[in-house]
């Protein structure tokens, strides 16, 4: 059985943050751009934090140049507000996540990492609060690229630098809960294990043709078999 690079999404896949992330971004956008635009209702699922800021501000009438000029300030404001407000009681781990991560972390034929739309600092904080950050020594984040589809090659390169192994094809496994996770798995011909614990139903996820779809991670053995197959 070949060694696998298993790349986990965060929000909707590993955990959910109750009522903090969106409001933190709204307050950051107001502070930097003077308006939150459509952030109250905009669909955030599966998107890079930087992409969300760009989409929301474009809808509010800002030019690309105006958005770019404030992006780093908005990013830092969001991270600061989120870290100040988010506490352990706001984090809900998805069913079976700890059992799955424990089992994968014990295997010599698995390298665990992140592939997420979060900025690294705020994403790491989401993992620190429920004590699962230690499973992931590296990853690819919203800080690293302007589209989610650009993240898999970055994660693969970081895995190579860490392990000396160049992961290719189905030995790269992307685990996520949205169409964006499925689509970015196609970039390198990776395997996608989709899980319907976010805003997407299993039927909707299936329509994007992931390799496997699960309702949740309650069946640790079946999930690992899908990842390692």
Question: Which SSEs are present, and which pair or pack?
Answer:
Layout: E1 4-8, E2 15-17, H1 21-33, H2 49-59, H3 64-85, E3 91-93, H4 97-105, E4 110-115, H5 120-128, E5 139-140, H6 151-163, E6 172-176, H7 179-185, E7 191-195, H8 202-206, E8 212-214, H9 220-228
Parallel strand pairs: 1-4, 1-6, 4-5, 6-7, 7-8
Antiparallel strand pairs: 2-3
What do the pLDDT scores average to?
A: 95
* Gyration radius from CA atoms, angstroms: 17 Å
CATH class call of the largest domain: Alpha Beta
Q: Which of globular, elongated, flat, extended, rod-shaped describes the shape?
A: globular
Number of strands: 8
Look at the helices and sheets and give the structural class.
alpha/beta
What do we call the CATH homologous superfamily of the largest domain?
A: HAD superfamily/HAD-like
CATH structural fold name of the largest domain: Rossmann fold
- Output the number of helix runs: 9
- SSE topology string: EEHHHEHEHEHEHEHEH
Gross CATH architecture of the largest domain:
3-Layer(aba) Sandwich
Major sheet, described briefly? 6 strands, parallel
Low-confidence stretches: none
Q: Give the DSSP E fraction (strand runs of 2 or more residues).
A: 5-15%
